[in-house]
Design a protein that fits this description.
heterodimer, A: mainly alpha, MetI-like fold, 3 domains, B: mainly alpha, two-stranded antiparallel ribbon, about 0% strand
């Protein structure tokens, strides 16, 4: 009775859906379109580039042919001198090449990938242990911890940036690159642990207890039951949680900006892109291409994990 | 169960939670207390501190920029909370209908939520770019609403509204997911009964959907307030000139004349407000 729609209602429905989808997708199309446009084409309001311009991607991915280096004649004579060591020649050449101008996108991407990957693995692992305990075992202060997780997750990074920075200065971690990256890793761990614990805890509760019981009757210990029964059963959810943690670290800007400002070689993509954007003018094509390449892994992850992600996020509705 | 088993179980439980809880304690609970301590000191970036008592607080309460940022934050909160809730609800009702390509549409509207902030802000900046942006093209060249191209993001007053719109765009999908999950569990007969009673679609929305969703709406609103009170990246990366509380705190702590003690004091006050909101959430909305 209510499922039948008049043609007019159908038109309105499809129009509304289309409007909503365009609203959501338009900025992405804008990024893609601008990344493929030649600078003379930027003012063109159409999303379709007049000429396909792939230079921005080529430059970011290091596929551009190296530029011819202009070397003054006097220096060239020095370079031709066989008495000069190869190392010295390299140094001389470096002064005249424009190598400093290239944005080391690959390096930033690798930095971001490494820290996000390690964060995801560690966080998922630690969270699965804790979530199992909170969901299944009885121990002192259990409900305090269950509630505490939620509270901790809602304390945003902004409230902790000063004390965390001061702590790492006091301990001496902030004075070396390695220590700084370690601090950042720990911070990403606490930004992801609570939500990972929450999602996994909810998931473990849906697994029937009789499975573990049967395993324990067969002689498994509690730990073995967890490791052999619960963990394999939770693989899809563990993967989803890993992706979620990975993406949080991949996207993080605030702490990266606080900790990595002076360690340019170790910067992550969000920080490097922001620096690139504010330091140079009118490089929309490169910025957009970089945005596109930063976006892509996340969208792929999201497609892989979509099914469980939507459910995992809404059960209890923690993340906003 | 024998007492030995209970003892073993609780020992294992403690062992399993220890690493996670230890890290959280060290890097969340301790910093909260350390922050309170720091708020009574004049703190430098290199870690040196001098005790100043309540000076940070009195200076802060006499600083007009602080009140200005509270005002900006309130406008931001009202705009984003109302916007995400209304759009999220509308989207959920829309996506709860049956139509072709529904799964595709459902997937696409989640994209903004998952995309990295850093990438999408550049898309938005380009849209509102005074020279090349589509916004100025439509407003000035197509609709002729104004004669001059405006830099909406460059001007803090208008940038606030762009930032609000951006937040609605980015975060309505989570509200939508929560609403959709609940809508799918509303029994069909409720709608049929209402239809038999002679309710038109609007009446059915008003008398069936809304009462059923009351609880979820409260959840969404409160969670949005809690999250957006601390929202930093979405605002700072799109328009660093919009000074909401977190951005004001960031400037105090890490930019210009660094005053980390003052930043700590702001955080302490903000944390108190947050704790109140979380308490409300746990008590009223989430029934443990």
């Amino acid at each position: 009775m209510m499922n039948k729609r008049t043609p007019l209602q159908s038109v309105i429905l499809y129009a509304l859906v289309l409007a909503l989808v365009i609203f959501c997708v338009f900025p992405f199309l804008q990024i893609l379109s601008t990344s493929l446009k030649h600078p003379i084409d930027w003012g063109n309001p159409s999303l379709i580039p007049r000429i396909l311009h792939l230079d921005a991607y080529k430059e970011l991915l290091g596929l551009m042919p190296p530029k011819e280096i202009d070397v003054p004649a006097s220096i060239q004579r020095l370079l031709d001198n066989p008495a000069l060591s190869a190392e010295k020649k390299q140094m001389l050449l470096a002064k005249f090449s424009s190598g400093g101008d290239v944005f080391p996108f690959g390096r930033y991407m690798l930095n971001t990938f490494v820290i996000s990957f390690i964060t995801g693995i560690c966080s998922t692992f630690l969270a699965s242990l804790a979530a199992y305990a909170i969901a299944r075992l009885r121990f002192p202060a259990q409900s305090l911890m269950a509630n505490g997780v939620l509270f901790v997750y809602m304390v945003g990074g902004v409230l902790l940036m000063v004390p965390l920075y001061q702590m790492s200065v006091n301990v001496g971690l902030a004075s070396s690159a390695g220590g700084t990256i370690f601090s950042l890793f720990l911070i990403y761990l606490i930004q992801t642990l609570p939500v990972a614990m929450y999602m996994l805890g909810n998931y473990f509760r849906t697994i029937p207890f009789s499975l573990e019981e049967a395993a324990m009757m067969d002689g498994c210990s509690r730990v073995e039951a967890f490791w052999r029964i619960i963990m394999p059963l939770s693989k899809p959810m563990l993967f989803t949680v890993f992706i979620y943690c990975f993406v949080i670290a991949w996207n993080e800007y605030l702490f990266a900006s606080v900790f990595l400002k002076q360690y340019q070689d170790f910067q992550t993509l969000p920080l490097a892109l922001q620096t690139l954007f504010t330091s140079k003018n009118a490089i929309w094509d490169r910025i957009m291409a970089a945005s596109m390449l930063t976006l892509l892994p996340v969208v792929i992850c999201f497609m892989l994990a979509n099914k469980h992600l939507s459910g995992g996020l809404t059960d209890g509705g923690v993340k906003g | 169960m024998s007492s030995v088993l209970i003892k073993n179980e609780s020992r294992l439980g403690l062992k399993l939670v220890a690493p996670a809880v230890g890290i959280i304690g060290l890097l969340v609970i301790y910093p909260i207390l350390f922050n309170l301590y720091l708020s009574f000191f004049d703190v430098q970036l290199n870690g040196s501190k001098t005790f100043v008592g309540l000076d940070n607080y009195t200076e802060l309460l006499g600083n007009p920029r602080y009140y200005h940022s509270i005002g900006v934050s309130i406008i931001y909160l009202i705009g984003t909370v109302v916007g995400t809730t209304v759009l999220g609800l509308a989207a959920a009702i829309l996506m709860n209908q049956t139509f072709r390509f529904r799964n595709l549409a459902r997937g696409l509207i989640l994209l903004p939520y998952f995309a990295p902030v850093i990438s999408v802000v550049f898309g938005w900046q380009f849209i509102f770019d005074p020279v090349n942006g589509i916004y100025n093209h439509v407003v000035v060249d197509v609709l002729h609403l104004t004669n001059e191209r405006e830099n909406l993001i460059g001007n803090p007053d208008s940038a606030l509204f762009v930032v609000i719109l951006f937040d609605i765009w980015k975060h309505f999908p989570i509200a939508y997911l929560l609403f959709l999950a609940k809508l799918q569990s509303v029994p069909k007969d409720l709608y049929e009964a209402a239809a038999i009673d002679g309710q038109n679609p609007w009446g059915r929305f008003w008398h069936v959907t809304l009462p059923e969703l009351k609880f979820v709406i409260a959840t969404v609103v409160l969670l949005r307030v809690i999250w957006n009170l601390n929202r930093f990246e979405d605002v700072y990366l799109l328009a660093p000139n919009v000074e909401t509380l977190p951005i004001f705190t960031y400037y105090q702590a890490f930019a210009g004349i660094v005053d980390q003690g003052a930043a700590a004091a702001i955080s302490v006050i903000q944390l108190l407000v947050l704790v109140g909101l979380i308490w409300l959430y746990v008590r009223k909305v989430l029934k443990w």
